[in-house]
Amino acid sequence: MSELWGIARFKFHEGKLEEFKRLSAEAMEIVRTKDTGTLRYDVYLNDDQSECVVLERYRDSEAAIEHASNLGDLFGAVLATVTVVHGELLGEPSAELREKLAGSEVPVLFTPFLSM
């Protein structure tokens, strides 16, 4: 199985930045203590802290599925703090992960074309 990268982009509802930060800290603790195959999980804020980008890297599709399961309902709470959500998944997901993503507009899947 191959590694996967996730890129999520959020724009915050007015007045929801602190709630997003609190929820992100909870998510980070879950990732650190429960995820076994998450290799990278970074949250970046723009200068005025109105938007963020989350970079995620997983050992394989199973690790990405585990991550989603571990975050569970917390992800819904995070989504309630944002107005715009964009996401990309980069790599070759397993049939199981493809099935779980079927019908969803986020994330958009990009498979390898050229790689070093």
Cα Rg: 14 Å
Tally of domains = 1
Based on DSSP secondary structure assignment, what is the total number of beta strands? 5
The count of helical stretches stands at 4
Inertia-based shape: globular
CATH class division: Alpha Beta
Give the % helix: 25-40%
Secondary-structure arrangement, i.e. CATH architecture: 2-Layer Sandwich
Q: What is the CATH T-level topology?
A: Alpha-Beta Plaits
Question: How much of the residues is beta strand, in percent?
Answer: 25-35%
| Sheet with the most strands, sense and barrel status | 5 strands, mixed
| Mean pLDDT figure | 95
Helices and strands: which structural class? Answer: alpha+beta
Distance between the termini: 17 Å
Catalogue the unreliable spans.
Answer: none
How are the strands of the biggest sheet laid out side by side?
A: 2-3-1-4-5
Order of helices and strands: EHEEHHEHE
